[in-house]
Design goal:
The chain contains six helices and two strands, in the order αααβαβαα. The chain is mainly α. Helix 1 packs across helix 6. The longest helix is centred in the C-terminal third of the chain and has 18 residues.
Length: 132
Amino acid sequence: MAEFLIKHLADEAGRADEFVVASAAVSAEETGNDMYPPAKRKLREKGVPFSEHRARQITRGDYEYYDYIVCMDESNLRLLRRIVGEDRAGKVSLLLQWADSNRDVADPWYTGDFEQAYNDILAGCEAMMRQV
């Protein structure tokens, strides 16, 4: 959801051409799969456009290419560090840190609460857009 939400916010702000946004997982278990159907439903409900999305695993090259690598939770942050190594360029953060919160984005995979996840992601993305 975060990839499409930040793209939507950038587009609404007239800043879409300033960003290259992509999402990637820290594991390979969902590689090739489309976005989870309840996530699509939530984006549709909120009026956030999205396109087909195929999951892929993040690479060391992604760390080199992107200016920001944003994780949803501490677990993903730990796994990311195993893939990309030390964050010597200071590119890695948790999404809600942008909104001055130290908590994880609510994980709808376990809770089924896509509304809370959406609200957390929105708060983080809006804060990031104000600061970048």
